[in-house]
Amino acid sequence: MRSSGSTRSLPERPIQLGIVLVGDDHPRRCTGRRLVRLGLARELRPPLRPGEKPLVLDPYATVPLTSADRPRADAHGLVAVDCSWNRLSARHARGLPRTAVVHGAVGRRLPILVASNPQHYGRLGELNTAEALAAALVLLGEPEDAARLLEGFAGGPAFFELNRERLARYAGASSPEELVREERGLFAER
C-alpha cells in the first residue's frame, strides 16, 4: 500500500482480498487491476503457498456464499479471478477459477444479483470483479467496506441501489439452504 493520503485503502480488517489477474480485459477497464493499483486488494500469482485455502468466488460453484463462510474468509481471505465473461466457460472447462488459485480452495458462488457496471448493466449475475467482491463483503457482514470498495467506479453506487432488497435478504441468510430459499423467493415474487 502507498503511504500517501491519496489512496482510499480499506482499513485493516480480517478479510483480506486477493485477485488473480488473468489478463483478458483491457487494462484500463479491468476493475481487478484497479483494485490492486488502489491498494484495496493484492494481486495473487498462483499457486498459493501451502496452507492458504481461501474462499474463491466461482460462478460455477453449487454452494452460495453466506455469513457462515466468515470464519474461512477471516482466516484465509477472499479471492476473485479477474477474467472475461466471454471466456469464462472455456476457462471453467480447464478448471478455473479454483484450481488456478490452489487445490483445496473453497469455491462459493454469489447469489443472483444485477450488474450496474457499464459493460453489463442490468444483466443478472454478470458482475465485474469490483462488484463481486463488494457483494461478497456485504454477505460476509462488511457493508461499509463494500461501499468503500466501489467508490469511484462507474455504476458503483447504483450497484447497491439496484440490489438493495436482494443484498438485505441474502445477508440475513445464515446457511446456504436459507440463501437459496431467499433467492427463489425473490425471483418467484417478480
What is this structure's SSE topology?
Blueprint: E1 17-21, H1 31-37, E2 42-43, E3 55-57, H2 70-76, E4 78-82, H3 88-93, H4 98-101, E5 106-108, H5 129-139, H6 143-150, H7 156-162, H8 164-171, H9 176-188
Parallel strand pairs: 1-2, 1-4, 3-4, 3-5
* Average pLDDT over all residues: 81
What string gives the helices and strands in order?
EHEEHEHHEHHHHH
Report how far the terminal alpha carbons are from each other. Answer: 44 Å
Across the major sheet, the strand order is 2-1-4-3-5
Report Rg: 15 Å
Low-pLDDT runs of 5+ residues are 1-6
Tell me the number of strands: 5
Number of domains: 1
* Sheet of most strands: 5 strands, parallel
The helix/strand class is: alpha/beta
Strand composition percent: 5-15%
Global shape: globular
**Helix run count:** 9
Helical residue percent?
Answer: 25-40%
Descriptive keywords:
five-stranded parallel beta sheet, alpha/beta, disordered N terminus, single chain, 190 residues
